[in-house]
Every structure is written in structure tokens, then in C-alpha cells.
Design brief:
With 363 residues, the chain is an alpha/beta fold. Helices cover 31% and strands 12% of the residues.
Length: 363
């Protein structure tokens, strides 16, 4: 049976707000107003408000040297993510702010309104070497608050102005709001978009990703992007054994039908504080199979641990279960003829030109 149990707290992902095990994080307390008395009145947990704090970083481009990633730099317009995906490997980063990787990660968000100005300054530095910038590698650039803050759009505007290549990963059809920028960039071979689809079943999707758009809306976005000439891919990320793994073939088929150029998958990862949050979520929503899910996950992560942090294996999974998942995926990809007719995407870097300075318009 794939029907999850009703959540104790509506439309949020994590079931707890645990303190961090690494930074002596204090337990988050209630705000103390009348809404918090709801639990005393009707036994329901108090509603959680989403708050946004302005963050003023000195730089906006993050660098990495991971051999598992096809890019070496990224931009994250926001910290925390209201989508509330229980599996999100970015949750532990909230502990650096003395906040919980649990419910705080979904409700206490940070926005970087200076992102475009910082990017303009960094791209204009002497000796900047152009390579694709990735967005959506940590938290989703098209989470709900982008509607009002429009920081992601402001970053894309700078990149479009400079003819700088861009890779976007999202699980939201809100990416279509920037199609007026993305389609011209695609015509110059400067952009690619990957949309994450983890389940086609609405009740499963709303449980693992409670505030992300409906799977059908994401697939419709794939079709719209493809029809507009934007190279678009589908990520089945993550695959959760005994909950969503039976949908791999169906998602590959739908991705091919929607015009995706390629499809990929990543087995669920549970680093640091994500593991206990995920276990609590299983106990709440899937108590009938919680032990089975964790047993398979551990089998793919070396046999006796919840997570494998090692390069090359952390994105793939090990053992019989990992091999089986890869085999099924490859068979499905061949069956639905996806990836075969497209060469590996290469975004252009030779068109890049530094942004104009404050006096650029005079010359």
C-alpha cells in the first residue's frame, strides 16, 4: 500500500525540529503568541510561519572541486527551502546559522538580494575564467519566495547580459516565468535546465516534497521548455527504495514523452542530520515499511550505515540493490529511446564578455 498516513503537522516535510548534533544547537522554542496556544485548545500543533531574513554575503559564487559534479561553481540565492523535501541533503547547512535542519530549514529562510550586484562585480574581475554556473545545487532557486524576491531572475539577467553559461536544477514549474530570458540564452547554447521528478503519485509526492509543485506541472514545464528550444533534462533525484523505486520506468517514459533530452537518477542520500529526520519521517508516514526502507538504503551505502560520503559512490549506490537500480534505469532509458539521439550537452563559454562598468555606457 502506497498511501501515507496523515501528517501530524500539515504541509511541512520534517516531523521534528531537532537540535544539531555537531554545533550544540539549542532547541527551537515557540514564538509565544496566541497561535501557539492552539495545541492547548484543540490538541493541534501550532501553525508554522515562514520568515525570510536578509543575508548580505561578500561574494555570491561558491566553488567546489568535487569529482562527482559536472560544474565547479554555483550560486544559491536562498538558504533554506520552503519545499520541505524530507530527503534534502542541504538541511544540515542550517545548523551553521544556529537553526535546526528540521522544521527551521523549511520555515526560517534567508534571501540574498545583493546577489546580482555581487555577481556583476565577480564576473568583472580581471582574469575571471568563464565556466558554467549552476543554480539549484543546494536549495531550490524557484522555491515559493522567488515570486516576491525575484533574486534568481536578477542573477539570470546578469548572466544573459554577459552571455555566461548557466545550469539550472529545480523541482518547480516557476522556472517558466523566466522563459523570456532562458529561450534566447538557449539559442546561443548558454543554458540547460534539469527538473526533478521523484514520484508521479500525488499523495507520495506531497508527502516527500510537501510544498513543491504537482508532478504533472513539472512535466508540463519540461514540455514547455523543450518546445521553446531550451535543453531540458529530468532528474529522478532521489530514488527512495520501497517508496518510489517502483516508478523509475514510468518516470523515464514520461520524461521521454515530454521532450526531455536526457534523464538521470540518484539514490537517496542521508548525510548528517538528514538521517534521523528521515527515520522519524518514515516512522510517521510509512511505519509499515520503515525497517525495510532503511535496510535497503544501508545495503546501498556499504551495508551498515545510513550514508556514504565517498566520492564516486555517494551518487551511485553500492551492492546488489545499487546494481539492480542502475540496470533497471539503463533498460528503461534504452526502451524509451532517451539520450540516444542527443550528443552530450556542451554549453558555450567563448561568448562570455565581462559586464559593463558604471561608465560603460559612455563608450
Amino acid at each position: 500500500m502506497d498511501q501515507p498516513r496523515p501528517k501530524s503537522r500539515a504541509i511541512r516535510g520534517a516531523t521534528r525540529n531537532d537540535e544539531s548534533r555537531r554545533f550544540n544547537l539549542p532547541q527551537t522554542e515557540a514564538d509565544g503568541d496566541w497561535l501557539d496556544e492552539r495545541a492547548l485548545i484543540d490538541g493541534e500543533p501550532p501553525p508554522l510561519r515562514t520568515t525570510v531574513t536578509v543575508e548580505r554575503p561578500k561574494t555570491i559564487i561558491s566553488r567546489n572541486s568535487s569529482p562527482d559534479l559536472p560544474f565547479d561553481r554555483s550560486i544559491n540565492p536562498y538558504r533554506g527551502c520552503e519545499h520541505g523535501c524530507i530527503y534534502c541533503f542541504a538541511r544540515p547547512t542550517h545548523a551553521y546559522h544556529d537553526l535546526s535542519p528540521g522544521l527551521d530549514f523549511e520555515t526560517k529562510l534567508f534571501a540574498k538580494p545583493d546577489a546580482a550586484a555581487l555577481l556583476r562585480a565577480e564576473l568583472g574581475k580581471r582574469g575571471y575564467a568563464c565556466q558554467p554556473i549552476a543554480m539549484g545545487t543546494n536549495t531550490d532557486p524557484y522555491q515559493p519566495i522567488e515570486r516576491d524576491w525575484r533574486i534568481t531572475r536578477s542573477v539570470i539577467e546578469v548572466l544573459a547580459e554577459c552571455d555566461h553559461p548557466l545550469i539550472i536544477t529545480t523541482k518547480s514549474d516557476r522556472v517558466l516565468r523566466d522563459l523570456d530570458l532562458l529561450a534566447p540564452m538557449a539559442a546561443k547554447e548558454l543554458v540547460a535546465v534539469a527538473i526533478s521528478v521523484t514520484s508521479l503519485r500525488p499523495r507520495i509526492a506531497m508527502t516527500i516534497e510537501p510544498r513543491a509543485p504537482h508532478p504533472e506541472r513539472r512535466l508540463a514545464a519540461v514540455r514547455k521548455l523543450a518546445d521553446s528550444g531550451v535543453p531540458v533534462y529530468v532528474n529522478i533525484a532521489p530514488v527512495i527504495p520501497a517508496i518510489t523505486d517502483d516508478e523509475v520506468e514510468a518516470i523515464v517514459a514520461r520524461a521521454a514523452g515530454a521532450g526531455a533530452r536526457g534523464v538521470s537518477f540518484i539514490p537517496v542520500r542521508l548525510p548528517w542530520e538528514v538521517a534521523p529526520l528521515f527515520r522519524a519521517w518514515l516512522d510517521e508516514h510509512f511505519p509499515d515499511r520503515a525497517g525495510k526502507v532503511m535496510s535497503i538504503i544501508q545495503s546501498m551505502r556499504g551495508g551498515n550505515r545510513d550514508n556514504d560520503p565517498g566520492f564516486f559512490t555517494r551518487m551511485r549506490g553500492q551492492g546488489p540493490w545499487g546494481d539492480l537500480l542502475r540496470t533497471r534505469f539503463m533498460i528503461a532509458r534504452r526502451r524509451f529511446d532517451i539520450d540516444r539521439n542527443h550528443e552530450k550537452l556542451r554549453l558555450r563559454t567563448d561568448l562570455f564578455r565581462p559586464p559593463r562598468g558604471p561608465q560603460g555606457e559612455l563608450f
